[in-house]
Amino acid sequence: MFEKEYELFWKKQVKGVGGQRLEMLQRDLTGTRKLLESVLIPVFGSFEDLEIEYEMVSLSGTKIYADVFHSRLRVVFEEDHFVTHAEKITRDRFSFERARARSVAIFGYIYFPYSRDELDKKPEFCQRNLYELIGRIGIAEGTGLLELPVYEREAMRFALLRNKPFQMADICTWLHLKREASRSVLRNLESKGLVYPVGGGSTRCHAFMITEKAKDLFHRNKQLE
Question: How many CA atoms lie less than 13 Å away from 92 in the CB half-sphere?
Fold first, then answer.
């Protein structure tokens, strides 16, 4: 499924593009595909708002490219291989990478890199990091605890008191809801960056944890303590 969706996504990215960015899109994008398949698509659920080989102009006036850019969140995602970005890097290349990171910061983007080893060996950890980032961005955008539906708020309250992984059955017990209704609550919380999955495989998770964003919402609202 991912391969077909990626192929369609890549064709849309290439359409109407020329020059250096087209050359970048036609190179070996193994690392970028790994980043998308292991972390970004499992978390975001689609290729919407994503752009690969995103073109920018650095402070020195040269064109630089981000592996993946999320236009709505304004986040630059990178996949860095140890061999090409650390082990065999020259001093000039090292300085260029630092200047490149500064350019990204000046543009007002969040720079969020992953190593190839992390993507290969710890994809769930990488996904949790991204959920936490989304949660922090949500706080900055002003998501309020009182704005949440009561079932979502109560599920978060129980999860906070539990302070360890919980499952769908726990939601059913806490809220006195049937499984389908509880699943809907859980999906909404996950989409808002208030809980993240732990354990399980790439298509099914067995438990969830409350995010730092959710904790902050409670701590900042003394009326509901």
Answer: 0
Where does 144-224 sit in CATH, by number?
1.10.10.10
All residues at 6 or more sequence positions from 7 whose CB lies less than 8 Å from its CB, including other chains? none
Mean pLDDT of the chain: 82
Domain parsing of the chain, residue ranges = 2-121, 144-224
Task: Report whether pLDDT(83) > 60.
Answer: no
Between the CA of residue 8 and those of 5, 40, 44, 90, what are the distances in Å? 5, 16, 17, 36
Beta 110-115 vs 50-57: how paired, if at all? unpaired
Q: Which amino acid is at 98?
A: R
Above 90 in pLDDT, residue 77?
Answer: yes
Of 35-39, 66-70, 212-216, give the lowest mean pLDDT range.
212-216
